[in-house]
Amino acid sequence: MFKKAGLIAAIAAAGAMTTSVAQAETWRFALEEVDGSVQDAYAEEFKKRIEEKSNGNITVEIYPYGTLGTSSQLTELVQQDAIQLAFASPGHLASVIPETGVFTLHFLFSDDNQVNEQVLGSSKAIDMLQEAYNEQNLELLGVIPEGWMVWTADRQIQTPEDMEGFKIRTMTSPILVESYRAYGANPTPMPYSEVYSGLQLQQIDGQVNPVFAIEEMSFYEVQDYMIEAKQAQFITTLVAAQDFYNNLPEDQQQMVDEVTDGLRSYIFEKQDQFNEERLNTIKENSDIQVSTLTDEQRDAFREKSMSVRDTFIEQAGERGKQILETLQQDIEAAEKEKSGS
Predict the structure, then answer these.
(1) Ranges of H-type helices in the chain
(2) What pLDDT is recorded for position 73?
(3) Residues 237, 144, 100: CA angle, nearest 5 degrees
(4) Helix 113-122 crosses helix 250-285 at what angle (to 10 degrees)?
């Protein structure tokens, strides 16, 4: 188990700067995923663009998952200004910022990713979320999708009844836990690094992640079925320490904003590519049965999931309710605009 003091000491030993000028020259960026992941691709492109735009005056150092601690610990390190940047997924962050649980609600987003890209880049709901992040000394720099969440299991799952008593690994988000309870499952939070062994030792019956993560962590090796229900996207957020961001010179703030805005389309395309390639790899290297739920089958899960929205509003309060309603309205408007109706 990582200790906070040890983590901060390790960062210092790795070359933490001692002057404010030096700190501005090296930005530490921590990931919740390993090398070769969607987050790694985003971070590498962020590093490239920042270093180019700063004419080499800023260096971005990338720390893959496990280098500095767990997901929750990475967020704490950002809050303490020990590192400058990190990914912070709602799957764990909702315990601290309940409003982020909106991204873990099932059947909220459009089946059309172009609609989702438009909404995540323009919705007023993101401005409301910024207020919640600021209250935790965090600056929300971007909302980043990583693909549809897919179930892997030791059994075929086609109906909520198939999930009765199913021990599924989830992140610690209260909304994620409630979502799977609504299906009759037994949600079991577990650190990402322990999921493979948990499946192998039958401590859990299945798990949920984007396809690229299922491949890179080899979860498919110890599962028999992979089921796509398009119930939710895996969405993470990019955060900076609020003090760090606010103290940047205006030109550097503008540079960060321009780079993160420009990376929105890049990462939508990249995650599509990653997930398609990794699905092919899984099919080529295993006999796991891959299936997609029909619209009728999805509707049965959708109906069960609706009660969880009331739970979200109870936990996230009035601001959370406004965020949810704004996203629903924006998604509906974007779908109508795209269909021409």
Answers:
(1) 4-13, 20-25, 38-53, 71-79, 90-93, 113-122, 124-134, 174-182, 195-200, 211-216, 242-246, 250-285, 295-305, 307-339
(2) 93
(3) 40
(4) 160
Residue type, 295: D
For the chain, the first-to-last Cα distance in angstroms comes to: 54
Whether the per-residue pLDDT at 310 is higher than 50: the answer is yes
Instruction: Name the 3-class secondary structure at 92.
Output: helix
List the domains of the chain with CATH numbers: 25-340 (3.40.190.170)
Phi, psi of 231, deg, nearest 5? -85, -25
Other beta carbons less than 10 A from residue 57's beta carbon: 11
Give the other-Cβ count within 10 Å of 38's Cβ: 26
Q: Mapped to the 3 state alphabet, what secondary structure does 194-238 carry?
A: HHHHHHHCCCCCEEEEEHHHHHHCCHHHHCCEEEEEEEEEEEEEE
Cα separation of 250 and 227, whole Å? 47
Q: What is the pLDDT of residues 11-27, one digit of tens each?
A: 555 544 433 443 458 99
Give pLDDT tens digits for 69-97. Answer: 888 899 999 999 999 999 999 988 988 99
What is the Cα–Cα distance from 274 to 220, expressed in whole angstroms?
A: 16
Look at residue 154 and give its three-state secondary structure: coil
Residue whose structure tokens are 């490239």: 48
Q: How many CB atoms lie within 10 A of CB 269?
A: 11
For residue 81, the cross-strand partners are: none
For residue 50, give both structure tokens.
């920042």
**Dihedral angle, C-alpha 239, 51, 270, 336, nearest 10 °:** 60
User: Residue 132 in contact with residue 94, Cβ under 8 Å?
Assistant: no
Instruction: Provide the pairing of β-strand 167-170 with 206-210.
Output: parallel
**CA 259-262-265 angle, 5° bins:** 145
Token pair in block for residue 40: 């790694």
Cβ atoms of 104 and 48 within 8 Å: the answer is: no
Kindly give, in sequence order, each residue whose CB lies less than 8 Å from that of residue 147, ignoring residues fewer than 6 positions away. Answer: 38, 210, 211, 212, 233, 234, 271, 272, 274, 275
